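Progress note, sequence design subtask.
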């Protein structure tokens, strides 16, 4: 939670914003791969009793996974084209 708040502050004031965008992209891609993808594949949902709710949950986790991939791309685009402070990352 602290990382997200620091990202917001950095992006708003424009200090270390390229670093903040890049680190936030790393955080989001890790969340996608380590949290949403295993749940979308049914590893953490308890697949012993398959119900329609479980299938819906897997579908929603797959949507969350792809949403995180999309947000990662947007963050990296912002880091490349919008960020003003480039002193930490070229």
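Output:
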């Amino acid at each position: 939670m602290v990382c997200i708040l620091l990202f917001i502050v950095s992006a708003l004031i424009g200090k270390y914003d390229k670093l903040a965008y890049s680190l936030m992209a790393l955080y989001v891609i890790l969340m996608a791969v380590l949290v949403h993808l295993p749940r979308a594949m049914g590893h953490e949902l308890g697949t012993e009793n398959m119900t329609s709710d479980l299938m819906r949950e897997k579908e929603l986790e797959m949507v969350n996974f792809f949403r995180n991939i999309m947000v990662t791309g947007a963050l990296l685009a912002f880091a490349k084209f919008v960020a003003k402070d480039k002193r930490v990352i070229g």
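Residues 2-81 form one domain. Work on this subtask will continue into the next period as scheduled.
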